[in-house]
Amino acid sequence: MTVSMSSREKVKPRPLESKGDMGGEVEGELRRPPFKLCFLDQVIPPNYTSLVLFYPMAKITTTDEYWSPESMSNNLKESLSHTLNSFYPLSGRVKDNIIVDDFEAGVPFIGSRVQGHRMSEFLHPPKLDLLNKLFPVEPFCRHTEPGQLPPPQVTVQMNTFDCGGVAIGLCFYHQTMDAATTSTFLNTWAAHSRQLITPDSAKKEVEHVSAKDLSGGYSTFPPPTSGVGVPPHELASLMDRLWFPPEKNTVATTRRFVIRNHAIATLKSRATAAGISNPTRNEVILAFIWKSMVAAAAASESPKPLCLRQAVNLRSRMKKKKNNKDDLILSQHSIGNLYSMSQSFFCDDDPANDGEMDNPNSIQIGAYSHLVGLIREGMTRLLDDKCLNLLSSDRGPEMFFQGMKHLQSAVVPSVSFSSWIGFGFSDLDFGWGTPVWSGVVGEASGNNPVLTNIFVLKELAPKDDEEVYNGVEVWMRVDPILMASLEKNAHFLEIASPNPPIIF
After folding, report:
1. pLDDT digit of tens for each residue in the chain (504 aa)?
2. According to the lineage, what is the superkingdom (predicted)?
3. Residue 50 domain-assigned?
4. Residue 123 near residue 32 (C-beta atoms within 8 A)
5. Structural domain harbouring 131
6. Are 223 and 396 in contact (CB under 8 A)?
7. How far apart are CA 76 and CA 84, in angstroms?
8. This prediction's pTM
9. How far is Cα 184 from Cα 429, in angstroms, rounded to an integer?
């Protein structure tokens, strides 16, 4: 399969016609103050996350007209310009790891042609080894070195297959965009696109986003005051070594598995039978994968991942009392990495485990439910009011720094999870229907050290297709030795289906 670039341009915020929230704007200009990074942004190493949305020809129709790739491209660029007018920091560039400025820099928008595969062939089953060709940059790799120009916050590649289907490849700069930021940005973009197509019916779908809505991260998690606590560059350096250790240059193997709803129900029933009250979908999936990874490590004589780390969105958890009610401190539109990591630790020499954790073809209910309990305890510790208040205080950066130093010195192998469930990535309708499928990341090129033993959970298909395509996708980037061991685990494969085809 060959992917060749046919066009490249920059999409910039649509010029404002009147004064707005920030004041000072005049027609054709954007005079906004720099967007300040919070300390949680300053410690994220420079890399991109990614998402690709597949719209086959059968989906790209409306009651009024046929949507050609050209008309789709024009609609996407115009609606993106409208969206950047609200989410203006995402059109800028990070400067000195302190602010985002230069909002006229814009978002690269690349047009590409895909030859050698029809979309139906590409997705039957999804060709993970080719998926990264549909992205404008290599995801999950370091993207800046000293002296290089700062990269864009968002990059777009619209890939047109010979059959007429379109795959929109999107990359998001992790230093300013977590999954929640990405979700609100994409859903706003899609609403603007639908409004361009059907102005009357979609008019109320576009939410007003103020500058204050975007900037809550800095006021909630301010960087340390000069001369007080740990300097941001030390935090950033430590995090860089944790994410991209210089001695680790092996490529992680990417795999996609699907856990169907009936299998999730089975996992929940096992946890309930062992005394876990109301186990959640997230808890049982994480416990199942963690147990499977420990068993895979034991079978391959690799270090066991005794720590589970889970990204937790703080926007819906940070609250304050106002008029005897709990009000959210952060807007859902707040830009940044406004999440923290819950941590759960498994004690390998606990006699109660009785060796069952190491057995690849066993899921003893007691051992499995023990992991569910550990995951729940880790989440409870993170969301304790004292912990959240400390993280958002002037002691937050120092507390974060000490926690990361401990993680580095302990050298405990871990598995890290990020759940994209509920962010609506499978429901993104730009005016020509929802995508038939959305992909996360393909195989890495090997040119850079990459993150390993990380897992992303996402919905399999749009809500209207849940009857047919029910379940959760598990995207894994795992050490090749561990992956080879995991793929021999009969019990794991009984629950998780490897890369099933997308049929449309």
Report:
1. 999 999 999 999 987 554 444 443 433 345 789 999 998 998 888 889 999 999 997 555 554 455 788 999 999 999 999 999 999 999 999 998 899 999 999 999 999 999 999 999 999 999 999 999 999 998 888 776 555 678 999 999 999 999 999 999 999 999 999 999 999 999 999 999 998 888 766 566 777 788 888 999 999 998 877 655 566 677 777 777 777 766 655 678 899 999 999 999 999 998 998 889 999 999 999 999 999 999 999 999 998 999 999 999 999 888 875 656 677 889 999 999 999 999 999 887 664 455 556 565 555 555 778 899 999 999 999 999 888 888 888 888 888 777 777 766 666 788 999 999 999 999 999 998 999 999 999 986 554 455 788 999 999 876 666 555 689 999 999 989 999 999 999 999 999 999 999 988
2. Eukaryota
3. yes
4. no
5. 2-220
6. no
7. 12
8. 0.90
9. 13
DSSP-based three-state secondary structure for 173: strand
- Three-class SS state of 414: strand
DSSP-assigned states of every residue in 319-355: EEEETTEEEESS-TT--B--EEEEEEE--TT-GGGTT
Neighbours of 126 (CB within 10 A): 19
- Cα gap 85→214, rounded to integer Å: 12
| Distance (Å, whole) CA 328 – CA 357 | 40
Asked, for residue 41, whether it belongs to a domain, the answer is yes
Distances (CA, A) of 366 to 271, 345, 356, 369: 8, 17, 9, 5
Give the total number of structural domains in the chain.
1
At residue 263, what is the residue type?
A
- Residue 309 bridge partners (DSSP): 343, 416
- Burial classification of residue 418, based on how many CB atoms lie within 10 Å of its CB (0-12 exposed, 13-18 middle, 19 or more buried): buried
Q: 306: helix, coil or strand?
A: coil
pLDDT of res. 374: 94
Q: To 5 degrees, how large is the angle CA 255–CA 259–CA 262? A: 170
CA 159/CA 166 separation, integer angstroms: 6
How far apart CA 85 and CA 92 sit, in angstroms, is 11
CA 346 to chain centre: 26
Q: Count, in order, helices (H) and strands (E) of the chain.
A: 15, 18
Strands 496-498 and 454-459: unpaired
- 19 domain residue, yes or no: yes
Measure the CA dihedral 94/95/97/98, to 10°: -100
Output the six-digit token pair for 388.
Answer: 């959240």
Query: Residue ranges of the alpha helices (H) in 36-86?
Result: 39-42, 69-86
Dmax (CA) for the chain in angstroms is 71
User: Which residues partner with 439 through β-bridges?
Assistant: 52
Is 426 contained in some domain?
no
- What CATH code is carried by the domain that includes residue 37? 3.30.559.10
Q: What are the tokens at 132?
A: 């990264």
For 70, 328, 351, 354, the CA distances from 61, given in Å and listed in that order, are 14, 40, 61, 58
Q: Give the amino acid at 477.
A: R
